[in-house]
Amino acid sequence: MSSHLSNRWLLPDGVQETLPPDAQAVELLRRKILQTYHLAGYDLVMPAMIEYMDSLLTGTAQSLDTKTFALVDQLSGKQMGVRSDMTPQVARIDAHLLADDLRKNRVTRLCYCGHLLHAKAEGISSSRTPLQIGAEIFGIDSIAADIEVVCLMIETLHTAGLDTISIDIGHVGIFRSLVRDTSLDPDQENRLFDMLQRKSIPELQEYLQHLPLQEPIRKQFFQLALLNGDISIIQQAREEYANAADDLTASLNHMESVVKAVQARFPVTLIHCDLSELRGYSYHTGLVFAAFLPGHGREIARGGRYDDVGSVFGNARPATGFSADLLTLYHLSGAADAFEAGILAPDNDDPELQKTIKALRKDKQRVIVDLTGGKGRPEDQHCNRRLVHGPDGWVVEGSGR
Question: For the chain, how far is it from start to end, CA to CA, in angstroms?
């Protein structure tokens, strides 16, 4: 056999399949999480896998350009893209498809779950085909909405069996407020942002010395990298930025309100306040947050506020939400549903046997018909019990363990 033929089964790098028994366990977890969202008032949407690029990469999705696979629609000749993030699609659905006179001033809660395709792996998952699950609130810019989505993210992780998590919370308005009062050009702002995000203290300190900033402003930027810890950090920040613009103080107050409310609802969850937490800075407009698991370097869920997201569709709406890769949550959980072993039934047309099989399946029991004529072992067919005929008719024999 040629090497070409022997390699036909290989998948591209970063592309995975989910096989038994994991596929069933992932599906059960998907249902549990979506049911959690449903009970909290979130309506499920299923956006299209592909869209025209001029729609797919508008608004918050502009930063996804390098991650999006492009192709040409043979019907229209227009360029299309395979979605690399469902959040912008859900925002479009809210802004355009649900934007009638009765809905445009209402609070809308939407949730979703579906596969993405990334041109390259990065972010929450190292996979190029993550299974994204998340929830969004549109139409209200209140602190209560931010609190709700952070709490729902924590509930999502708990549903997946991830209890020992920590949450990083920041606010991009703090950095934006400081930048606004300077003469920094976009390149300088981006370099400063990158150093803060990486917390490269020596590099940041040296770079600040070369920027056209007054010493008090230079110190304020430097302090962003140092102000991280528990909620007491926010009071330290108030003192450090006592002479800053009012909107910076408002951002600190917003952070504090969210942290206190989330901590009250989840007292055992570690919450870390970080003033240089700027994930999604290019499109987030307010609170940003991410979830981490001890021993796992990457964030396992993330979100934030991205107001006016629907402006490119003619209906600007405040929005806040979060997302995670369901496959990552499943593999990290260690609490996924165990594979359900079945009951092996003989290949027999006996009406009583067929009636018994039907009754067992109606009772949510997994019954597998033995097509080997009794030659195979139950465990080879993922069974730990048998249907056997006894004095009282067809009965299940075995421990079920």
Answer: 43
E strands along 310-375, which residues? 319-325, 342-346, 367-370
State how far Cα 114 lies from the chain centre.
11
Distances in whole angstroms, Cα of residue 197 to Cα of each of 127, 222, 230, 351: 23, 12, 18, 68
Strands (E), 17-130: 43-44, 50-52, 69-72, 79-82, 108-115
Sheet holding 287-293, edge to edge: 43-44, 108-115, 131-138, 319-325, 296-305, 287-293, 166-171, 270-274, 228-229
Q: Which two tokens stand for residue 207?
A: 């770079």
Would you say 159 and 28 are in contact if contact means Cβ atoms under 8 Å apart?
no
341-400 pLDDT tens trace: 899 999 999 999 999 999 999 999 999 999 998 887 888 888 999 999 999 999 999 876
Contact by Cβ (8 Å): 113, 329: no
Place of tokens 């209906």: 315
Enumerate residues 6+ apart whose C-beta is below 8 A from 233: 227, 273, 275
What's the CATH code, domain 12-141+307-339?
3.30.930.10
Rounded alpha-carbon distances, angstroms, from residue 323 to 124, 164, 345, 374, 390? 9, 19, 43, 48, 53
Give the length of the chain: 401
Let me know: does 117 contact 92? Beta carbons within 8 Å: no
What radius of gyration, in Å, describes the C-alpha atoms of the chain? 26
β strands within 47-165, DSSP E? 50-52, 69-72, 79-82, 108-115, 131-138
Residue 39 CA: distances (Å) to CA of 30, 32, 45, 74: 14, 11, 15, 42
- Contact (Cβ atoms closer than 8 angstroms) between residue 111 and residue 135: yes
Angle at 37 between CA 36 and CA 43, to 5 degrees: 145
CA distances (Å), origin 28, targets 23, 246, 247, 327: 9, 48, 44, 12
Rounded-to-integer distance, Cα 383 and Cα 372, Å: 14
Q: Above 60 in pLDDT, residue 101? A: no
Distance of CA 182 to the CA centre of its chain: 35
Every domain of the chain and the residues it spans: 12-141+307-339, 342-397
Buried-exposed string 31-45: b where 16+ CB fall within 10 A, e elsewhere: eebbebbeeeebeeb
**More confident of the two residues 198 and 369:** 369
The tokens describing 238, both together, are: 């108030």
